Amino acid sequence: MIHWITYGAAQCALAVWLLALGTGAQAGTDCPGGTVSVEGAGADLAGRVCTIAADFRATFAACGLEPIKTVTVRVADVVDPETPNCAARFNCDTGALTILSPQALALVSEIDTPFATIPADTLFDSLLWHELVHGLLHENAPDPVSRVSHEYLAHAVQIRALPADIRETFLTETPVEQPATASINMMVLRFVPAYFAAASWEYFARQDDICAATHQVIDGRTPFLEY
Q: Which letter does DSSP use for residue 200 in this model?
């Protein structure tokens, strides 16, 4: 089962939880532009990470926003030895984004949720978008963003990053009762994370565009309850 919760002493160090199984380390790669580096990944996977990071930057640059300045993406066997179910984590204070490899995610065999409908390679890519959103909010919000709004936008952008057919399958497996805002809270996130993700997407998709949705979060105008 997948659990999506805040992690660490700093509220911006956020995590996604799975069974942690992994692969060996690879040499480091610097992405074009010098703001993102990749550790522990082969050339093909590092290239994919660089492409996603560039797409992420371009997407939000169109909104007048800058991602966190320097990011080191570490593809690891285990994200945190003390929490062996952690699959991805971004520490916004250090710019360290640690994530399980697609091969590690593919070895997770007991996920009885709609997330199991997402192929491992696609899940890896979407988790990068999810974690980078946390850094984006940390970098651009003048005041701290609430935990639930952080997770709402990260999950919504993660679902947005899925190919249309995979997204549709995920959403079909997770029908959301209206209004979606009633399900965007930390209790739902803790106990039914797939439903939280689907509800986040439903609310996000009703906004004018990704820029409007992101600025709504940054400006503190989301209608979610913090519980």
A: H
10 Å Cβ neighbour count for 39?
A: 17
3-state SS, residue 30: strand
- End-to-end CA separation in angstroms for the chain: 22
- Report residue 134 as tokens: 């946390």
Tell me the average pLDDT across 139-152.
94
Which of 71, 69, 75, 61 shows the shortest CA–CA distance to 36? Answer: 71
Backbone angles phi, psi at 73, to 5 degrees: -95, 120
What's the sign of the alpha-carbon dihedral 158, 174, 196, 202? positive
pLDDT (tens digit, 9 = 90+) per residue, 26-72?
568 999 988 999 999 999 999 999 999 999 999 999 999 988 889 99
Closest CA to 114 of 159, 153, 177, 79: 159
Q: What's the sign of the alpha-carbon dihedral 125, 88, 55, 50?
A: negative
Closest by CA to 84, choosing from 63, 61, 101, 100, is: 100
